[in-house]
Structures are given as C-alpha cells and as structure tokens.
Amino acid sequence: MSDFYQNGIITNFHNLTQRPVEALEADLVRFSMRRPMGLILPSLYSELEGPALSHIVDELAKVPYLSEIVIGLDRADREQFLHAREFFSRLPQHHRILWNDGPRLKALDEELAAENISPQEPGKGRNVWFCSGYIQASRRAEAVALHDCDIVTYDRSLLARLIYPVAHPQFNYEFCKGYYSRIADGKLNGRVARLMVTPLIRALKKIYGPLPYLDYLDSYRYPLSGEFSMRADVLDGIRIPSDWGLEIGVLSEVHRNYSTKRLCQVDIADIYDHKHQPVSQEDPSGGLNRMSLDIAKALYRKLATLGVQISAESFRTIKATYYRIALDLIEAYDNDAMMNGLKLDRHSEEQAVELFASNIMEAGAAFLDNPRDKPFIPSWNRVQAAIPDLLERMHAAVELDNQGKV
Question: Which GO terms describe its molecular function (predicted)?
Fold first, then answer.
C-alpha cells in the first residue's frame, strides 16, 4: 500500500481498519473542545421531499460534536421555508436555515449587486458561498464540513471521517476532500469524473506538459465529490464558481492558496449512492450536459490564470487527444466491470464521451467569446472590504428568519 501516506501530490488517508463510528466520534468530541466544528448542507427545497434528506437529518441528530449546522435553502417560497423550519427542527444541534429566496437575504444580495460583487447566477456555488459567509458571521466553528443532501446511503461515519483530518488539533491540514467508490445497484457510476474530467486532465497534460496544477488535480481519486472539509479561515479568501464548476473551482483555489502538504483526501464511505443526473443530451442547460460544459470552462479559466495560452486551434487538439484517451479508458472500465460482475453499457459510455468531446469545443468557444466574463464569486475578504457590516447584518437577517415572523 505504497500510497498510504502520499497519493500523487496530496496526502491520502485510506479507511484501513473500518474503525467504528463511535470511536471516531469520541475523538471528535475531544477535538471539539479546542476546535469547534460545523456543517454546511446546501439544499434545494425539492430535496426535503426526496428519499435521502430525512434519513440524513435522523443520522445527524445522533452526531455529538457539531457546534452548528447551516442549511442553505434554495427555491423555496414562504410556506416551503416554514415547512423547512419544522423539517429541520428535530436537529438537537444549534442550526440555522438560510432562506436564500426570502426578502431579507434577497435585499442583502441586491446590495452586493449594486457593488458588482453578487453571485452572477443561481446554483450550488452561490448557495455554498452564502453559507460560508454565515459561518464566518456566526463564529461558532473553526473546522467546517460540507456534503450534499441527496445521499441515499448516508451514514454519519461519512461526516466523521470527512472532518477528522481538519479537526484534529495535531494535524496541519487546511482542506480535505472526500472520496469513495462510485458503485451502486451493480453498476459503475460517476460518469462525468470517469469519462470527462480524468481524460480531459490527462489530455491537457499531454498537450501542455506536466504542469504542477494538472498533476495536483490528477491526484484526487474523485475530484467531483460534493464532500469536503476545511478550516473556517479557508473560506475567507477563496473565489468559487456559482455553477457546476464549484468542485473544480474549490480544488483550484486551495491549490493557489496553500501548500499541497496542507491538503489531503480521505476514504469516507464503502457504499455511496445519490440522485443521478440525466445526460440531457438535447438540453445544454441541464444534467450532465450542463455540468460538463461548466467544468471544462472552469479548467480553461484556471489554466489561463497560470499563463497557459489557449487558442481556437488548441481546442481541436484538446478534443482529439481527450477523445482518444477517453475511449481507451472505456476499454479499461469495461474490463474492470466485467471482472467484478458489474454492469456497464459500453454504447451509452461512448455516447457520453461524444457529448463531452463536443462540449470541450463548446466550452472553449464560450471561453474565447467572453474575455470580460467574471466567472468567480468574489471572496468574502473583498465583500467585507466593500461592505464592512454585511456579515453582521446577514447574521441578524438569518436570526429573524429562523426565530421570528416571515
């Protein structure tokens, strides 16, 4: 197990001993005396009606070490927000819901827009960004984890393993990314990571050389996982995309701000399944179609900030190199699935690669056509410089939403 201490560039923690969750939580309770911990849950209202979130809340209710849970609630009207307050009320920990579509937070967003520092579009990145600001305003947590609300196989040990590296007082990690096997119902999942991100990163390495940034991204076992943790002060200085490029954007920002010795990934689940996005082949505004476009644009933008010159001609080379690598990987995935008794539809895999290859060109055109595009939400450091009291007023607005009349 030669990569136990180091997998590529970042430290890699395996789940070697299947340590019981009670033992992990006993450690974390001790750690919390010196480093209080919080959790961010970015959620659509529709997820309150889905099969996963109620079970997640039941599991979180048993967690003994969290000082705060912050729920970012999108696409909810007044009645739905009131239902959400009741839905999450069984959490024994201090918890607050950010009603992102409510009048108080919308008024603050209008102030940000007037200063040209508001998130440009709705999405998970915008939700996480507002939750990050609230975490800083509340000052209840020094280590913060984030995970999705659609995990149908959720167990609270996932959270314990995810936050452990940044919560341990003797560890020096600033950021931790979760990874896990993407197998469910006898199928090999994780198509965007397997068929788009990995071959695209390797194509870019072939064309532009072994850049430290690309080697770094290639070290993550599952770069698109929605589960990560960090020290709370990391949230001050990162600039993240508001779209599906969130995960790649966060990885890019922590690489820019910290030594790779301060970054790690951890095995957080033996079994992981969540809501699967449709490919949406005919609809570029949804599903894996939109996701792949946003991820490709996030990668191009980052390379540009590193001084890599990308022209229209470059994208044809990137597409061709990507396509060949992706097809070779499909062969390996097919063999792996067969050896392990799993199902893999090779035809649909190749169809997905054709779509992703097309989107590599489409994202390139969008990148070149919008030279003044501002793809990242400003950091909270900049927001506080522009509107010094905004975090305090955000905290007050959230308190009124959660405890007063709406």
Answer: transferase activity
